[in-house]
Design a protein that fits this description.
The protein is of the alpha+beta class and 822 residues long. 58% of the residues lie in helices and 9% in strands. The strands form 5 sheets. Strands 1, 2, 9, 10 and 11 form a 5-stranded antiparallel beta sheet that branches. A 4-stranded antiparallel beta sheet has the order 4-7-3-8, sandwiched between helices. A hairpin with a 5-residue loop joins β9 and β10. It is extended and about 130 Å long. The chain starts with 8 loop residues before the first strand and ends in a 25-residue tail after the last helix. GO terms for molecular function: ATPase binding; proton-transporting ATPase activity, rotational mechanism.
């Protein structure tokens, strides 16, 4: 069927043997033409038949996500689709994924331990080097000072001078104090606080020496690069030692053992360096093994991922099916298009043969009063326009689809506001990039804005083509007019008229064949002329589109056999709209054709305020207002067109409001004959509840609610006829704004820069002009015109006929499986 009405749907029932159920659902998923109903809605996910299988699939999906994270950390990406067909069995795949996960977890754990040990040894080596340098310098200084005679009493003592001289140390052995020390690394940003806390906690009874590490080191605990200082803290007593150790732990300082013996220090540095080389070799071999493992996983990842998602979706669907009382078959119900009956039956038969089932699946159509889902067959061109309509609301089953007309009207209304064939060409070139590369781009993951633009590439293509068309009508190329279709019909009377007004122009040849004559651009009367043209054109377009909407309501009513909507909705709405604004559109056309100077504002205002007064010079045609004649007794006025149209508009309001609620009440009373309940129709057991609910819905007829609803609908249409017509004036306003902005950028930027006769200023002006044109006119103005065209379709056009209270057809299809995380 075409796009005007959704595909005919029917409710089908499938009775599938247990042994072929998995394969049947898989084939139906490949077909993607049936939307299953959940027949176990009252059961929780854990109470359903295949909860265990779904849990297994979820666990496999978790493992695959773990592999994906590990590949991302390693800088790898899944390879292209593998052609090998191994591991297609889910049980084999589950076992293999478990083995791979265990191996990868073990490799990661060993690598983490080795890396931590390596980082600790690296820090230890730095501590040995820095602290060793300090101890060696202190010992060298002390030795040099001992060689000097009388150095104890002479000069000021430095920090490196020993606190006790050799004589003082040997005089009284009982008074000697053994100094202990702690070495390690502390983060550089915490070094000052670390020193301050140590001083306060020990009341200054410590000596701290720090040395900065030149390059950041990897912290063994956090695994991040941190700038650190090597510290040596000298203390006296166990109490001070315990305080220092607690402070080190609080500041995240890593402590390492250290010896005062210089020989042992050199030996320890040698041992640590050798150990570092061994660990580096081990870590590199582990990383190589891990990379090979991840690469082998990446080669099969996409196929495994698709297989797991398919299996999980199959079991999700099987959980929506009810089990027969014999426990030997599953019963499924779902919606499918009528044209899909034969493909579904073929898929059922193929599944029966491939599963070696002795009993075939049963396919039958059920009768129901439930409203079917809405399904339109779209292609890559029409899908974007259908999405624009669906964003407002999904069409009710088989009601007229506005997308058929939106394909043309949406880009046309956009172009009326965006009319400039230079800007249209820019949009066209940008869109052709997406269209030419659509195969490549469709397989890539794009950003949000780029993906949205790529999805609407054919909408933008139509917008660009229509913008070129309306730009040719407006005769604007970046606001510059061109004589493309011939020479201007006007010429200067003398040389002085070029810079004055159109009064100095005379018509020397036939009218310009297509669009606005270029002579209007740049003249003083350009703005009044284009304002009048675009304002009247906006009204004509608006009235035409609203009439189309009302006409579509007639086709809807005729399709659904609703005579009430034809007689008491379509006809009065059509009369009301055209009695006022259809008449205004007719006056505009007559004024254009006759060249009359009639004031249409005056005509429309006094049509209501004083319908019997003479129009005078504002009369556009004979019989527009009155015809009068006399006889012997009286003067009789026969008021013609305007008065008749005004009376029709007044009559149309109660025509819309009153008859329909009373006729609906009368039909309800005839249908039920005064009964409180209607007997249930004979249906299948699975549809008894739905039929009961449907008939019960017919019993609840509240006349007051129907009347209030009709009253609201009538008021909305009457007021909307005025406001919606005025809303179409946005076409005039945005078109004028776009034209004026384009003119300002051209005259005040490009021409101004050209007038300086300076290459640098010209280049700067050209850059500013290009940036302003792209940023303001091609991006912001495009978005603005798009949103206004969207509003005109959603509010002014679709509210005349489109209910949009349906629900979309979402078939069970493997092609629709997304990449979202479980």
């Amino acid at each position: 069927m075409d796009l005007f009405r959704s595909e005919p749907m029917h409710l089908v029932q499938l009775i599938i043997p247990i042994e072929s159920s998995h394969l049947t659902v898989a084939y139906l998923g490949d077909l993607g033409l049936i939307q299953f109903k959940d027949l176990n809605a009252e059961k929780s996910p854990f109470q359903r038949t295949y909860a265990t299988q779904i849990k297994r699939c979820g666990e496999m999906a978790r493992k695959l996500r773990f592999f994906r994270e590990q590949m991302s950390k390693a800088g790898l990406s899944p390879s292209a689709w593998s052609l090998t067909q191994a591991d297609d069995d889910v049980d084999t795949l589950e076992a293999k994924l478990g083995e791979l996960e265990a191996e990868l977890v073990e490799i990661n754990a060993n690598s983490e331990k080795l890396q931590r040990a390596y980082n600790e040894l690296l820090e230890y080596k730095i501590v040995l080097q820095k602290a060793g340098e300090y101890f060696q310098a202190a010992q060298s200084s002390a030795t040099a000072q001992q060689r000097e005679s009388g150095s104890v009493q002479s000069g000021e003592e430095s920090l490196e001078t020993p606190l006790l001289t050799e004589q003082e140390m040997t005089t009284d052995q009982s008074k000697q104090v053994k100094l202990g020390f702690v070495t390690g690394l502390v983060p550089k940003e915490k070094a000052m606080a670390f020193e301050r806390i140590l001083f306060r906690a020990t009341r200054g009874n410590v000596f701290l020496k720090q040395a900065a590490v030149e390059e950041p080191v990897i912290d063994p605990v956090s695994g991040e690069k941190v700038e650190k200082n090597v510290f040596v803290v000298f203390y006296s007593g166990e109490r001070a030692k315990s305080k220092i150790l607690k402070i080190c732990d609080a500041f995240g300082a890593n402590r390492y053992p250290f010896t005062e013996d210089l020989g042992k220090q050199a030996q320890m540095i040698t041992e640590v360096s050798g150990r570092l080389l061994e660990l580096k070799t081990t870590i590199d071999s582990g990383l190589l093994h891990r990379g090979n493992l991840l690469q082998s996983i990446g080669e099969q990842y996409d196929r495994w991922n698709v297989l797991v998602r398919r299996e999980k979706s199959i079991y999700h669907t099987l959980n929506m099916l009810s089990i027969d009382v014999t426990k030997k078959c599953l019963v499924a119900e779902g919606w499918s298009p009528v044209f899909a009956t034969k493909p579904i039956q073929d898929a059922l038969q193929r599944a029966t043969c491939d599963s070696n089932s002795q009993v075939g699946a049963i396919f039958q159509v059920l009768r129901t009063k439930e409203s079917p889902p809405t399904y339109f067959q779209t292609n890559k061109f029409t899908s974007a326009f259908q999405e624009i309509v669906d964003a407002y609301g999904v069409a009710k089953y088989q009601e007229a689809n506005p997308a058929v007309y939106t394909v043309v009207t949406f880009p046309f209304l956009f172009a009326v506001m965006f009319g400039d064939w230079g800007h249209g060409i820019c949009l066209l070139l940008a869109t052709l990039v997406f269209i030419i590369r659509e195969k490549k781009l469709s397989s890539q993951k794009l950003g949000d804005i780029t993906e949205m633009t790529f999805g609407g590439r054919y909408v933008i293509l139509m917008m660009a083509l229509f913008s070129i068309y309306t730009g040719l009508i407006y005769n604007e190329f970046f606001s510059v007019p061109f004589e493309l279709f011939g020479r201007s019909a006007y010429a200067c009377r003398d040389l002085s008229c070029r810079d004055s007004t159109t009064i100095g122009l005379i018509k020397v040849r036939d009218a310009y064949p297509f669009g606005v004559d270029p002579a209007w651009h740049g003249s003083r009367s350009e703005l009044p002329f284009l304002n009048s043209l675009k304002m009247k054109m906006s009204i004509l377009i608006g009235v035409a589109q609203m009439n189309l909407g009302i006409l579509l309501s007639f086709f809807n009513a005729k399709f659904f056999r609703s005579n009430l909507n034809i007689w008491f909705q379509f006809i009065p709405q059509f009369i009301f709209l055209n009695s006022l604004f259809g008449y205004l559109s007719l006056l505009i056309i007559i004024k254009w054709c006759t060249g009359s100077k009639a004031d249409l504002y005056h005509v429309m205002i006094y049509m209501f305020l004083s319908p019997t007064d003479d129009l005078g010079e504002n009369q556009l045609f004979v019989g527009q207002k009155t015809t009068q004649f006399t006889d012997s007794t009286r003067l009789m006025r026969v008021f013609l067109y305007q008065l008749v149209l005004l009376l029709l508009a007044l009559v149309a309001v109660p025509w819309m409001l009153l008859p329909k609620p009373f006729l609906l009440k009368s039909q309800h009373e005839k249908r039920h004959g005064g009964q409180s309940y209607t007997p249930l129709q004979e249906t299948d057991d699975s549809l008894q509840l739905e039929a009961n609910h449907d008939s019960h819905g017919h019993e609840e007829f509240e006349f007051s609610e129907i009347f209030v609803h009709q009253l609201i609908h009538t008021i909305e249409f009457v007021l909307g006829a005025v406001s919606n017509t005025a809303s179409y004036l946005r076409l005039w306003a945005l078109s004028l704004a776009h034209s004026e902005l384009s003119s300002v950028f051209y005259e005040k930027v490009l021409l101004l820069a050209w007038g300086f006769n300076n290459v640098f200023i010209l280049i700067v002006g050209l850059i500013v002009f290009i940036c302003a044109t792209i940023g303001v006119l091609l991006v912001m103005e495009t978005l603005s015109a798009f949103l206004h065209a969207l509003r005109l379709h959603w509010v002014e056009f679709q509210n005349k006929f489109y209910e949009g209270d349906g629900y979309k057809f979402y078939p069970f299809s493997f092609a629709l499986l997304g990449d979202e995380e479980e």
